[in-house]
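Notes from the 1:1 (GR / supervisor)

We went over the backlog. Supervisor wanted to see one worked example end to end before approving the batch request, so GR pasted a single chain during the call. The sequence is below; no edits were made to it. Supervisor asked that the structure be written out right there so they could see what the output format looks like.
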Amino acid sequence: MKAAMDKQVTHISREDLEELREAFNKIDIDKSGYVSDFELQELFREASFSLPGYKVREIMETFMAGDTNKDERISFEEFVSIYQDLKSKKFSESFRKAVTRRDGIRSFGGMSGISSVGTQHSYSDEEKVAFVNWINKALAKDPDCRHLLPMNPDDESLFTSVRDGILLCKMINLSQPDTIDERVINTKKLTTFTMTENLVLALNSASAIGCTVVNIDALDLMVGKPHLVLGLFWQVIKVGLFADIQLSKNEGMIVLLTEGESLDHLMSLSPEDLLLRWVNYHLHNAGTKPIKNFSEDIKDSRSYFHLLDQISPRGEHDYMSINIDMSGLNERDLNQRAELMLRQAARLDCRQFVSPQDVTSGNNKLNLAFVAHLFNSHPALHRVQLNGTEAADLEPESREEKTFRNWINSLGVNPYVNHMYHDLCDGLVIMQLYEKVKVPVDWKKVNRPPYPVLGANMKKLENCNYAVSLGRNVARFSLVGVGGENLNEGSPMHILALVWQLMRRYTMLVLSHLGDGEKVGEQIILNWVNSTLTKARKDTHVSSFKDLDISTSLPVLDLMDAMVPGTVRWDMVKRPERGVLRTADKVNNAKYAISLARKMGVRVYALPDDLVEVNPKMVLTLFACLMGHGLKKAHH
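Structure output shown during the call:
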């Protein structure tokens, strides 16, 4: 195999090979050494070759014809060989077309942590410009960012701006308000140590809102590695852009239901799919043809002109109205037409994310962001009268659901989970979670998409049955009354029961790595908390994870101060007066405690309300993570 490999990669530089390996590993989630045929398009995207679907299918057909083992899976060696084919004459024509705009891609040389060979990482100039303009506008009035803003979109200032961590923390709060208690951000007299603290706080907070930060550390950000900085900013910005693109936040979206479609199905759609529906709803009202994507179909700006015309404010009084000038549709030059369209978008205060070139080249990511911003600013959907049953179905995601979903996404599962129950009902994400908690999965027993048209649900049910069997027999979870059909039907109660045990196992794993491999029980964590408090002469004590004193957050703050003396600024903390602490003060203490834990380097998924309400599940994860952090420091 090695000889074959060496033979195959003779024409590929080591840098390219490392890039390809990195891309392959990102898609090969189960670490089987293979990717499936249906993941090939995503793999090309990771390797900076965005090829249209039909071209990928052509490549697959050619590959399958010569695939001796007919397993419809692609090994790394086979991928390298396809990559070489792409560069050879056979595909050169289509390949050139697909990557003609390499001028917008910059190469960034850096040193790989694995070897001393310089590695090349590409990043997109268009993304950098788009994000700089968005951040400049969003944080223009923030006094803590005055030393950084406005950034110049034409130089490298975006990559140096993250160095002190302040900008990143502020962007996280812009996307998900109140994620970080800003009292914890170091803003004065910055040193390498305090800047690193800010970056650790930002990374742990990004993880808590569902961003994948598995392969990024504070040092990567401090040196401003462009591909990592851009990737992280895109995740953070996307969380903010997509936050309200869901039915429970905008009941007017009910008009996007198609005939015969259930409300459940509409609620389970991803934000991307909902945005496509929204655009097509307005295009239908404009009497023009629908679009299928935010790349090929929007290049001529026609759909955008009609969309802007439909969503522009139509006030009863003239001063409230904005009439979109549609004359740009007659412009022959597509770049000029896109510019005229964006001038109309500017009148709606929505000229963000895309340049005329990003429209005419069909940059999917930036056009998606542009449309999401249009939706958030001017949805132009009228409230629909709902009958009682449907209104009840539109309940927003619960806090527990959101916490679990963010935890799942932060681990880098594929596909991304938008809807807790619907997106887990084929068992694939659950299998990936098993692997994260060291429960071995036999992937030969797992059915993967594309599922057959007939019997698709049967294949998904088989996966769910296997998931329950792994939980019972291998992980030894308590799954009384849970069957594969419950997961397959998306039953909230049963899915939450399984996911909670997975999250608990994930949290406890940190501790078993540090102990002598013994299974750590709740009592051991409780004993550690109390002995640490006693040794530091603190007067708080925790009798259980349901102890009501936890609602003040004082035991948590005392524990952190015991672990790293001087961490807590006690002037920030409210203490009970005559034995009573007001709810507002409890909330403030809890926000401070959670952000402080993240700044110390603890990956906390619990939310301030979990402390205030003493949610024993989340309190357990918080104390377990603090214990893991404390023991790790002691080991070092």
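Supervisor's comment: Strands lie at 34-36, 73-75, 105-111, 118-124.
Batch request approved.
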